[in-house]
Design goal:
Layout: E1 5-6, H1 8-23, E2 33-40, E3 51-55, H2 67-80, H3 88-99, H4 103-114, H5 124-134, H6 136-143, H7 165-171, H8 183-194, H9 201-211, E4 212-213, H10 217-221, E5 241-249, E6 252-260, E7 266-274, H11 276-279, H12 284-293
Parallel strand pairs: 1-3
Antiparallel strand pairs: 2-3, 2-7, 4-5, 5-6, 6-7
Length: about 300
């Protein structure tokens, strides 16, 4: 059972869009795109109250920096259980991880969450303990008993050049243990967060503040690495309120967004695209968000 009410007209619109964009020079788009799109009613939507549709929403895909959204929520959960000590340095790392998508900050956060650190290869009992500890974020997600979280994997740091030592070993043969998310799982986490169903109120506001994005062109022009241009935010109308976390690497361009249009429509849109060609495609995600945010039945 899906966590939203399926809408056949929305699904038909998605399929037609993907067909159109595929025919515009993206021949493998259908095999390399996943999307979840949900519309909510009212000013204060509740979890599982939306209507929506998806395309390959259950397909596991490397999330790139979108996984940092999960790590931010984990930090606030750990803090609420006194498993972490709040500090100025922790807040600085959270800010850099989400606002500026820093991989160094993410490495620090993952170390804190899992009581592990990077380094040379480990063996025997020490290696088994390290692997068990590195999986505690997954353990938390699975404990929530959310069906969309059953198959995902959130246990790896994010990298500029790739893992080394024990982190390289932990990726496993052919990178089979790398991070993996679906657009459904990402949508469900973002929905639970934004509706106040995942964390306590103060913790929710802490994460939402970090995810809040400006669409002001003057502000964006001053930051060439902003998470708007080339992503879903670029296609949204002026005056839209946006909360999002993007991910970009050589073979992935992904974005997770929750937004309220100037007309007052609340929407959730997650798009994952994979492959070198789509990673370099600055047009596709903005075009999708523009079409879907302006959809009228």
């Amino acid at each position: 059972m899906s966590f939203y009410l399926h809408d056949s007209e929305m699904e038909s619109f998605i399929c037609k869009l993907i067909d159109r964009f595929a025919n515009e020079g993206r021949p493998n788009l259908h095999n390399n795109l996943a999307l979840t799109w949900i519309i909510y009613q009212g000013n204060n939507p509740e979890a599982s109250s939306g209507i929506g549709a998806s395309f390959s929403g259950d397909k596991l895909i490397y999330p790139a920096s979108v996984v940092k959204l999960f790590y931010a929520c984990a930090v606030e959960n750990w803090l609420s259980k006194d498993l972490l000590i709040d500090s100025q340095e922790l807040r600085r790392a959270m800010y850099e991880m989400i606002v500026n998508s820093s991989n160094d900050a993410t490495s620090f956060i993952v170390d804190l969450l899992t009581a592990t650190n990077s380094g040379p290869s480990l063996y025997s009992k020490r290696w088994e303990i390290w692997k068990k500890q590195r999986n505690v974020i997954n353990d938390w997600l699975y404990s929530l008993k959310v069906s969309e979280f059953k198959s995902i994997n959130c246990c790896q740091k994010t990298w500029n050049d790739g893992p080394f030592g024990r982190d390289y070993d932990f990726y496993g043969a052919k990178n089979h243990n790398r991070n993996a998310l679906t657009t459904h799982a990402t949508a469900k986490l973002l929905e639970l967060l934004m509706t106040g169903s995942l964390l306590k109120q103060r913790a929710t506001e802490n994460v939402k503040k970090l995810l809040s994005r400006s669409l002001d062109r003057v502000i964006l022009k001053s930051d060439p690495d902003n998470q708007i241009d080339g992503f879903l935010g670029e296609g949204l109308s002026k005056g839209t309120q946006l909360w999002s976390k993007a991910g970009l690497m050589s073979e992935a361009r992904n974005d997770a967004s929750w937004f309220i249009t100037p007309e007052g429509k609340t929407m959730l849109l997650i798009v994952f695209s994979q492959g070198k060609d789509l990673a370099k495609d600055n047009y596709l995600l903005p075009a999708l968000s523009n079409e879907l945010s302006n959809w009228i039945r």
